Amino acid sequence: MKYKDIKISKCETHFLYKGKKLFDKNFKKVLKFHSEWLAAVCDENGWYHINLLGKAIYRKRYKKVFGYYFEKAAVVENNNNFHINTEGKRIYKKNFSFCGNYQENICVVRDFENKYFHIDKYGNEIYKEKYLYAGDFKDDFAVVKMENKMCKHIDKKGNDLNGKLFLDIGVFHKSFAIAKDEKGWGHINKNGEFLYDERYLMIEPFYNGFSMLENFSNEKQIIDEKGNKIIEL
Questions:
Q1: What is the pTM of this model?
Q2: In this structure, are 43 and 22 located in the same domain?
Q3: Residue 23: partners with Cβ closer than 8 Å, 6 or more residues away
Q4: Which of 74, 148, 150, 180 is most solvent-facing, going by the fewest CB within 10 Å?
Q5: Rounded Cα–Cα distance for residues 226 and 212 (Å)
Q6: Beta carbons of 74 and 62 less than 8 angstroms apart
Q7: What pLDDT digit, counting tens, does each position of 88-119 carry?
Q8: Residue partners of 215: CB distance under 8 A and separation at least 6
Q9: Do 31 and 63 sit in the same domain of this protein?
Q10: In total, how many domains does the chain have?
Q11: pLDDT in tens, 207-217
Q12: Boundary (domain end) residue, out of 25, 54, 85
């Protein structure tokens, strides 16, 4: 059995394996199993995590729990957010108003002053800056929004990737990211340089060399990584 083969029922109250109900038990709500072979579920007593046999891995119940990533799960107790390990024990003492999921063993959090930043696997801040918003790390870089509403990419030490600021940006996907300047949306490389001169109303990340976009005339097109129009949709 592979954990990815365990599916959630359409009503999201139980699990299925090869179309059959797993461990013959219903919950109020379930989330999918992750690589730790653990899943988040909710019953009349609250949220917790179960193993492959459908058994709770700890006694405590929470207002909400989420899936395990890098053997850490975000949980909500009252209005406090923090992470627990696969034994159900707190990883650090500090509370946050929001906790994301660990990605690349780093996690984004929000403090009680509504400032975003990233913590390491021990719950320690990995840099001194605080942001209006911060996203997950992907391929070693994350997006942050500064107090002046401009966005940039940072590395895992909190350093600027390229010194470039944008009105909005996305994470890097296969070396390229979507970015918005005063003219509109386009694609940039890791130097913060646009790949082409045109800008668009809406644009998607490249998928195997091609991207779907919508221009300012509300026409949808497919372009390649050089910005050449390939298909008019």
A1: 0.92
A2: yes
A3: 15, 53, 54
A4: 148
A5: 13
A6: no
A7: 999 999 999 999 999 999 999 999 999 999 99
A8: 200, 201, 221
A9: yes
A10: 3
A11: 999 999 999 99
A12: 85
